[in-house]
Amino acid sequence: MNVADAVPEFADAFEFKEFNRMQREALPAVLETDDNVVAAAPTASGKTALAELAICRTLSQGGTALFLAPLRALTTEKESEWERFEELGYSVAVVTGERDLDPRRAERADILVMTPEKADSATRKHDSARYSFVTDVDCVVIDEVHLLDSERRGAVLEVTVSRLRRLCDPRVIALSATMKNVNDVADWLDAPPAATFQFGDDYRPVDLETGVKTYTHGENSFADKYRRLYRALDLAEPHVREDGQALVFVASRQDAVMAAKKARDELAERDVPMGARGDYDLHTEAAELDDETLRQSIPDGVAFHHAGLSTHDRNAVEEWFREGTIGVLFSTSTLAWGVNLPARCVVIRDTNYHDPLEGDVDVSPLDVLQMLGRAGRPGYDDVGYGWVVSDRSEADKYRSLLREGKEIESHLAGRPGIDDGDPGDLETHLNAEIALGTVDSLADVMGWLETTFYYVRAQSRPESYGFADLRDRVRETVEGLIDSGFAETDDRLGLSPTAVGRLASDYYLRLDTAERFRATLDRDRVDEPAVLRSVATATEFDSVSPRSSERDAVDTILSGGREPVSTVEGVATRATTPRVDDLDDGPRKVLAILRASVADSVPSDLRSDAWVIRQNALRLLAAFREFAETFADPQTAGLVARVAARVEHGVVADAVGLTAVDGIGAGRVDTLAAADLTTPAALVDAGSQTLTNAGLTAGVAERVVEQARGLPRASVEWGSFPDRIAVGDNDVREVTVRNEGGAARAGVRVTANGTEMHEKTCYFDGETTVPLAVFGAPQAETVAYAVEVVYPELPLCPQRESRTVTVRR
Questions:
Q1: Are residues 42 and 203 in contact, defined by beta-carbon separation less than 8 angstroms?
Q2: pLDDT per residue over 575-605, tens digit each?
Q3: What is the H or E stretch that residue 221 is in?
Q4: Rounded to two decimals, what is the model's pTM?
């Protein structure tokens, strides 16, 4: 069947002219019905075309399609691939946590591309103007639905799809290369038998042979990497000598680079004929690569590929690999999920990797199968060869996996017959549904659970999932939410969220973390060290673990060698180093990274994980700031906002307010602070010429001054405020606080000798008045009155003015 015959309007969106056997068999269900579709088909058999056909049908009906990509890196890849739809007049919008959301573009998009985590976050905020677009989706395509089996991410995908079905009931197309229990997924998504497909290995374009090769594990993990590398090269070498190619999966970006370097030397010693040192054109093209190590490797026929490479370099490596210029390619798991780059031989060198948030984890069984599925080049190879390099102690586990496959399980809630009592993430996700209002009664809780994949699997494996007492366990979870203050019930057994429950949902918090934030705010004094410690001990960081090479750096920072500077009432002071000896290794590492980030001095030993940890910490700090505004006061919220800005930018405390100005980052803060310009108000007063003299370009200086004018700037008009008062007298005056800049939420506090007399929170636009009672305290010679203005949503230092009144005897 020709593409032009099936979808004439969209023929130019496809890179081929004719559908293959698998695509032809699934096409009627995808293109000619509105049924939900579940399809399992081998890697490289053309599943992407099924996704694109479903999108075509949606677009032809005037609808919006949502594509859920398993990795953030793949969202960018799809954006590039689907320029073909843009050329046909349809808009594609990628919505991820790394990009600033453009709500108007997302609302107008015909195709949305998101990760499950971003879709989860967006659907939790669907009733806001920024994210309302997510409920206008007509079709959801789940790429690699076997992500359900992921311990960390599976429950997120599961509840997000279930939530979307309750919010807007879209059509769902679920695709996977490794889905043994396809019927369970079909039951979950209500896909009829005619729209449920299990395409076997006979649909692979190339036959696949797989196996496990072992190595002898030593005491040195670094040396073990080389043992596995030599084993991988032993497996790849025969194929490379026959003009085949090898794709070797490794644990990390750094591993990919280092393995490629070592492989160049080793293959040269073995005299393996590969590379194109004499190819002038290749040398010229390689010289234009952004990565220096890659420039040196390409002419030798060895390369590496990971998400950290520039788009130009990734595209070049992929093209050279397709052409056969690259004989051995080392890659992270990105290539297993995304770009179709088959090789005659695929080797998984590393079955374990280090995750910044999870510590050392095994590659999931289904990911192993996904990687090996890349073996075999259609049109070039009769057979593809896939190998797992494993320690002898784990060899049988992988042999069993290759022989029997693996069913997809749910990780939403506890599975008594599997997890030994681990409750899963049920309480966190159930709290989100209560906060959203999709679950609003005790009776509705079970109705929601019945829409999940967990419920389907519990019916399939009742003993393993404890199906008999499932209702009791769910009831206990609801009671726990009520007892912990996340939800409340009424006489009619209705459920509603509390403020804590709603904030925990909005900010994607684990419930233990929300409770910890509340406990921190209940203390008499919250300072910068307390804020950093509260974030570092968040449950989200429970699985963080330091490598052996990181421990010295962590100890140096936490011993006081890199103490942060705190800001108390606008005054920069050296923070007292809090106790850390009671912290476990994971929180110690997180706290060390946060402290070093504040001082802009993250040591090289910690930089590999610092970015991920810092990004997650910033999300937690944003939540903590709103907790502070809700349950404490504007002063504490403002403090947290300043701490967050310092963690993000690494700037000194007395200049942190400059980060509130659009266009000013860490480098410009340093430049301006060196010229004694440390506040937005100082920038306005100085003028653009002074900023230019300080080192900014003229254009930037003008924009910065204009942006600074838009920030709030308080001044106090004391009026006829007395300078003395008799003992025992009282005189109530009214003080005007004027905003000479842009409007913002503000907290205004009046104190007398440090004791709060009056406090108000307002939208500060123009001016506001506060009462001030002047009194002649018998025991005081003078009374110092202060008016302080803080901004709970901005990283501005408090603005403070004071007057002193003498008490006459």
A1: yes
A2: 445 668 789 999 999 999 999 999 999 999 9
A3: helix 221-241
A4: 0.86
